[in-house]
Each structure stands twice: as structure tokens, then as C-alpha cells.
Amino acid sequence: MGPIDSWDDTALVSVSSDADLLASLRAGQVEALRTLYQRYGRLVYTLSRRILHSDEEAEEITQDVFLTLWKKDAYKAERGSLSRYLVVLARSRSIDKLRSQVAHRQRLHKWHLMMADHPSTPLDIATLGERGERTRQALKTLSDKERQVIHIAYYEGLSQSEIAQRLGIPVGTVKSRSRQALRKLRQTLETRL
After folding, report:
1. Are residues 6 and 71 located together in one domain of the fold?
2. CA dist 127 → 30, 97, 111, 133, 192 (Å)
3. 193: domain range?
4. How far apart are CA 193 and CA 104, in angstroms?
5. Can you list the positions of beta strands (E) in 22-168?
């Protein structure tokens, strides 16, 4: 199973509360993260594995969840237990990953259907090449930040939350850049027709 088994459960002798461990974690003590991982890692992994049906992806989500716990102070005790927070975060990240994979497969399927419906005659190839060039030129009209979001979304198939996580920006910023970029692309491509 990988990282989940890398820390020996018997080494856990501390009976510190989650609140004490979180306070230690905020103070930069790595041992607190290790203890929380021992306490909740299997729970997070098992849930992610059930959703994604992949050991590798479940391990990735588990690491991501605990990295989020380490780097961000998003957990609020008044909203519920730490285990509940970790389960909700793992579920959300797993479903986002699943949606991203489904969307990517759907785009590939549409592309394959389009290519199957249209034989590759010299005219078809020229038309596709011309469209591709117009699209490349339209992409050049976007700012670097807009182009980056569009590239990650459409060429790598990541969800908006995954893009936000990768770039270290809020999801709202990703949505705003994406909307603005698509609006600009539509206007640019319509004027060049």
C-alpha cells in the first residue's frame, strides 16, 4: 500500500488530542503530522481508494490531504471533528479527480468521433490546420495567466480546483481567468471568421 504502511503504528505512544497535535503542527513540529497521519491516514486512503479504484491515486490524494493540513490552516474545530474534516477533504479531492478524468475521456471520445466522421482528405487536413493556426493566434491574445489556466484545463484535463491547487491560487481566481479567457477567445475567433 505504500506510504500508509511506512510509519509503524506501534510507534504511536502519544495519546495527545487532535487539538494538541494541531497546535504542535502549527508550531512547525513534523512529529505532530506524523502522528495525525498514523491516526487518520488509513481512513483517508480507504475512502479515496473506494472512490477512485486506484491504489496510486488514493495514495496521491492521501498525501495531498495531509499536505493541505500541514500547509494551510483551513481546519476549524468549531465546524466538527478533525476526522470529519479530513474525510470531507479526501472525498472532495477524490471526486474532483474523478470528474477531471471523466471530462478528459469525454473530450478524447468526442475528438475520436469527430475524426471518424470526417475522412482525412487533403481539404479536411488543410481546414483543420487553418483552424489550429487561428486558435494558436487567438491564444496569443490572452495574458500569460489566462493562457496558463486554459492550457491546464483543456490540454491536461485538470478540474478548476486542481488548477487552483497547482497554481496556489483561489478557485474563484481560476474561474474568473477561465471565463475571461474564453470570452476573449470567442471574440477573437468570431472576428477572424
Report:
1. yes
2. 57, 34, 15, 10, 14
3. 141-193
4. 28
5. none
Q: Which amino acid is at 143?
A: S
Is residue 32 within a helix (H) or strand (E), and if so which, with residue range? helix 30-52
- Return d(Cα 136, Cα 118) in angstroms, integer: 22
Q: How many domains does the chain have?
A: 2
Q: pLDDT per residue over 44-58, tens digit each? A: 999 999 998 889 999
CA 155 – CA 101 distance, rounded (Å)? 12
Q: Which of 56, 53, 58 is nearest to 42 (CA)?
A: 58
Say whether pTM exceeds 0.85.
no
Select from 159, 149, 157 the least CA-distant residue to 111: 157
SS3 state at 54: coil
Q: Determine the Cα–Cα distance for residues 193 and 188; give it in Å rounded to an integer.
A: 9
